[in-house]
Amino acid sequence: MLTEDLENLKREICGEIDEIDFSNKKGLADIRVKVFGKAGCLTLLSKGMRDLSPEERPVVGALINEVRNFLEEKISSKEKDFEKQELRERLEKEKIDITEPSREKIGAAHPISNVLDRLTDICVSLGFSVVEGPEIETDYYNFEALNTPKNHPARDMQDTFFINDNILVRSQTSAVQAREMEVRKPPFKIICPGKTYRNDSDSTHSPVFHQLEGLVIDENISMADLKAMLTILMKRLYGEDTTIRFRPSFFPFTEPSIEVDVSCPNCHGKGCQTCKGTGMLELLGAGIVNPKVLEMSGIDSKKYRGFAFGFGLDRTAMILNSINNIRYFYRNDIRFLNQMK
Fold first, then answer.
1. Parts of the chain with a pLDDT under 70
2. N or C: which terminus of the chain has fewer CB atoms within 10 Å of its end residue's CB?
């Protein structure tokens, strides 16, 4: 009789466990109490062993242990299923979709980078090649090869950072032109963009700034070629209605030399705060390459001539974006950078 009761209990409890769904966790706990509690079914059946004969007790005892272990394992397995289901639901609820697009705002190119890209594109479309050179330079390439020997008063125009008597951080990208003239055979057209350094700091000057210089070497080059090329360049950069003005100037590596002014893009020549009421803005220097510079680089000055020009990219970016202080470029202020969009 006790044996049949144990088998019936096993089948009944197994059925109840299988029928419990994952929303009824308390029901599984109730079954555990129903079976293994102090007044539980299996507990009461175990007490019935005292009424058995000595021969029956080992057999029934073994069966009770078998049923106890089976039901314990069955309930534990169901509890683990409950835990797995809870974990799945929590993961589903708390998961993060890493494929979701970022909510960060799209940035924009830095004003100096933007001007550099625009000028480079224009020059490349005119047939120029882009070359770069070292920022740590020798006195020879930065000055002497450009017709500015030691103790020449023209050096006072550039307050330079010297590392020792011969090594310096370049004060102009013209040093790249001097290097290129030694290794290139005419004719050639190059531009040399990059960082330059001078001991100068105020609202319109920075110890670190950017230049883009151009050089053309060929036969029968004249000032007319230079003026025509710069006119095209200025109109593509500032607009077709831009007025260009050429004034005589001095640079040791060009002769003759000129300063190039353009009509203010903000007021279109009428006069404003940017152009200080003049309607014109001084933008760059240029000129015909001095024959001495050609000869020092190994180029026959009787056969070839050339012209050179140089932009201050920081100043150009200030003009195009109506920025009145160069320091804004280097402060990394997000409020300033957001305006560049």
1. 1-2, 49, 100, 102-104
2. N
Q: What is the pLDDT of residue 124?
A: 95
Q: What pLDDT does 2 receive?
A: 67
HEC per residue, the chain: CHHHHHHHHHHHHHHHHHHCCCCCHHHHHHHHHHHHCCCCHHHHHHHHHHHCCCCHHHHHHHHHHHHHHHHHHHHHHHHHHHHHHHHHHHHHHHCCCCCCCCCCCCCCCCHHHHHHHHHHHHHHHCCCEECCCCCEEEHHHHCHHHCCCCCCHHHHHCCCCECCCCEEECCCCHHHHHHHHHHCCCCEEEEEEEEEECCCCECCECCEEEEEEEEEEECCCCHHHHHHHHHHHHHHHHCCCCCEEEEEEEECCEEEEEEEEEECCCCCCCCCCCCCCCCEEEEEEEEEECHHHHHHCCCCCCCCEEEEEEEEHHHHHHHHHCCCCHHHHHCCCHHHHHHCC
pLDDT of residue 99: 77
Six token digits for residue 90:
């929590």
pLDDT of residue 1: 57
d(CA 232, CA 159): 32
What is the domain partition of the chain in residue ranges? 2-94, 111-339
What is the CATH architecture of 111-339?
Answer: 2-Layer Sandwich (3.30)
Structure tokens at 79: 């509890």
**Hey, what amino acid is at 104?**
E
Residue that has been written with the tokens 């990059």 in this structure: 194
Whether 177 and 191 have beta carbons less than 8 Å apart is answered as no
User: Do the beta carbons of residue 288 and residue 311 sit within 8 Å?
Assistant: no
Pairwise CA distance, residues 187 & 304, whole Å: 8
Separation of first and last alpha carbons in the chain: 89
CB contact at 8 A, 117 and 54: no
- 118-136 CB burial, b ≥16 within 10 A, e <16: bbeebbeeeebeebebeee
Name the residue with tokens 């109730």.
30
